[in-house]
Structures are given as structure tokens and as C-alpha cells.
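Fig. S4 source data, part A: sequence.
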Amino acid sequence: MTVQQDTGAVSHNAEGWHTINWQQAHAHVRRLQARIVKATQEGKWGKVKSLQHLLTRSFYAKAIAVKRVTENKGKKTPGVDGMVWQTPQEKWDAISDLNQRGYNPQPLRRIYIPKGQNTTKKRPLGIPTMKDRAMQALYLLALESVAETTGDTCSYGFRKERCCADAIGHCFNALNKPTSAVWVLEGDIRACFDSISHDWLLENVPMEKEILRKWLKAGYMESGKLYSTEAGTPQGGIASPVLANMVLDGLESLLQEKFPKRKGNYKTYNAPKVNLIRYADDFVITGRSKEFLEHDVKPVVEVFLEERGLELSPDKTLITHLDTGFDFLGQNIRKYNGKLLIKPSKKSVKQHLDQVRSIIKTNPSISAGKLIRKLNPVLRGWALYHRHVVSKDTFAHVQKEVILALLRWVRRRHKNKGALWRKQKYFTVNKGHDWVFFGEDHGKEITLFNPAYLPIKRHTKIRKDANPFDPAWEMYFEKRLETKMVNHLQGRKQLIRLWKAQNGVCPVCQERITTETGWNNHHIKPRALGGADTYENRVLLHPNCHRMIHNSNISVEKPRLDERR
């Protein structure tokens, strides 16, 4: 008995952008990615290359690549050619334009953005054209599954289904025990993205070398002048974070080889206690002593980076004792009388409050309701990021400072009114809590988000070997997705109810709705035709599926849990 297997050459009946079968497209790409993962695990690099070739020439993979670059945050940002793909016809034409033969990427458009919250320091950003972004997204579909399979287990930045909270959780696991290391090397790589060796990338990254070489040597335009690029990957390219991760992968295994963990009595055995935790180009390494990190570990890291054209920044690379503490990813990690506590860093709190005060100060005349609409996403986003650590006192402090800033805003608006009048107009009692700032927007009363009342909820760290492209881990990631979405939608009960009622699936394309894909809240019966703004008349759709529904006048039914059982 023989079983016919899909070789990847799948035909399609699409005649336009809104007629593409996205469910079949995603299934086809995932099937090839799963085969790439299996071939990588078995070390069959010839098969990996063949499957990558098949994937990057697939119609469905090209369609998904175009879909990605026309739905992300930079979809309206043009490259040097000034073009963006906005209409369905432009997106459809772009699919057939993604050909490897005769492909030559255009130079990047160089712009500068503020470095963090510091408005004086600027970070260079290279903006590729829409076609070059789509080509990068296409090849990323074939490369990312390899990168996830071969990547360091201690790496958490710019990786699918991994986040900052996982890196902080790893720090806690490595440092919280009485026998854990108390010295930490804080690593800072000087101009990481701008300094990576092109020769190393071309020799070690498993993808079509000619395409990669063209990307790396494309150059950039600034003030009408063309500049060449001899090193580095451009910050702003879709593939750049994955390439940078692949450059830094291997440090974990090198440290384990040089400083192996051995079983023994910690009182008699002088264990190295080396642990690496990395988020993109930021990393920390634990060690048994300051001298050990300085003279044994640091030279190994420097040699590893030098082979890749990188080096540590002497000024920012520090060796710190846990009693002093260190900042990592916006958190302060420190031991207090032998107990490890992780809190929001003072720098993060200051930047957050500066942002909130700036919003309040630059909007002196808008209504209280509109001000709340501006503040709530900022307050909620920051609090949800820090809710997994020891943040209760910090949240209370932040809330106090926000209320003081709002009181100043109210006094400036009503200089001739008394304190009691101002309090009654702008502050109310809500669920037993006093001094709740409130206002009206579109006829509805809304209140300011209060981080002090957000419950602290510990984050469950991702398992180190988990691979989102490996079918063996599918059930594991489905369970994590539900927890992640419920936490992300904290306080938005109707969205949580809709998402759960749909089992987290878009009823149009049958693909998962996640924080990465985004969603639109669709009224099944349009409000213009008398449809109610209620739960029964709403359904969550992907943005592209939502546009397809309206463009093609397709009706959509509300999914029911019992229908899927």
C-alpha cells in the first residue's frame, strides 16, 4: 500500500487577493516548515535546502509574505521608491512579482528614531522597499523554522512564542537558590546589528547565498546619497532579528563545553555556576566569582564575538554582585538579605511616568474622557508587562503620581473652582475605591485604569526545548496561547468572551487569532442596517479577513463552541 504525499507543488484557484484560500495557504506553509524542522533535527541539510527552495517558490508562501508586510505596523511606510501596497489589486500583483530570477534589492531608506525614551540619542533604521520586505518575509518562512530548531535554549528575543517574561523567569530560576551564583556579567555588544561580519553570515546561515549577499550589500540612501554596507544587518529589515539571533547562537553550547556542570556537593566542589540568559543582543552570564567571570568567562565570550565581527562595549559591560543588583529588560534583579526579588527598575518607572505626564501636559483642553482614552493603553500596557514580578508597591506609587498629575491638570482647567467641586466633577467612587478619575466619551462613562488593582500573576516560563514549528509541540502551544490571550485582554471581558467562544479561531480562514495577527471586532449585521452593538452581533476576525468580508459582501455566522465538538 502506498500513500501519496504532498510534495509542496499545490495548485490554487485564486483569481484575486480576496479569493485566496488562506486556510489552505497556512496549512501548506506549515506542512513544509514541519518537514524542514524534521530534516534539520536529523541533520539532513541537503533535504533542508531542497525544502527551502520549494517553499520560497510556492504561491501560497508568497501570498503569506505579502500579507505580512501589508498588515504590520510599517505597512504605510515606503522605501526609497515611495511605494506602498494598499489595494487588493496591488497586493495580488505583488505575489507574481516575487521572483528570484533577476531580483536585485534596492538600497534602504535611512531614517533615525529616538533610542528608547532618550530624545537626544538616535538609532539608525533602514527601511527596505515593499518588494524587498516581502522577499525577506518569504525567505524568513523557510529560515525561521531552522533558526528555532538550532537556536540556543536560553535565547528569548525576537523568537516566536518567547518573550521578556520568559527571560526574566530564567534569571529567577538561575539565581534564586541559596547555592546559586551571586556574581553576574552584564554583557553589552557594541553596535551589534551594524557590525556583524558579512563573511560569517554568508558562510553559516542556511539559505540561498546569492539572495542573502544581495540583501547585505544593498547599501542605503541618506540625504540623496548612496552609501555602501560592508558589515552588519540593517535594523528595520524583517529578517534582521533572526539573522542576528543565528549569529549569537552557539554561545550557550560553547560555555557549557568550557564550563560543564557537574554533580557534586557545593560545599566541597567549586562549581562554575555558569548560566547564560540572552534577549537579542542583551545578555547576562552568572558565575561563581568576580575573578572567574573576568578572567575565565569574559575572554571566551570575546573570542566568540570576534569571530563574528563583534565586540563587547568596555564601558557598558559590567560585573555585578547580586546584593547590588542589576537591571535587565526593564526589571531590577537583586538579593535582599539572601532573598531574590525582581522589581520594575527605577529607570523604567521614571520613563513610564515621564510618558504619562507628557500626555497629560500636552492635552490641556481635551475632555476627561478623551484623555482617559489616551492614558489607558499606556498604563495598562506597562502594568501588564510588569505584573509577573514584585510590583504591587511600585504600581501603588505609579497610581499616586498619576493622580497628582491629573490634579494639576484639573486645577489648570478650573482655577476659580474649589477643591471639592473639582473632585466631584472629575473623580468618583468605583467598586469601593475612591479618587477614580472618570469622564465621558461617545456617550459612555469610562474610568482611568488603575495599576494598583491589577493582580500580580506569576508567568509560566516556556519549556526550553519547545519549538512552535514542530507538530509535536502543537498542544503545548495551544494551551499557552489561551493563557497569553486572557492575560493580554485583562479587563476587556467582552473580547475575552468572544475569543473563547470562537476557540481563538477566525471563522473565515480558520487560523488562530493572536496578539501578533491582531483582530477586528466585526458586526455580523451592520449597525447601519439596524444591527445591535451587543455580544450576539459581534465576532472577532483577522484584519485581512475583515476587509475581505466587506469587500466581497460575504456573510459570516457566529461560531458556537458546541458546533466544533
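Fig. S4 source data, part B ends here. The longest strand covers residues 118-127.
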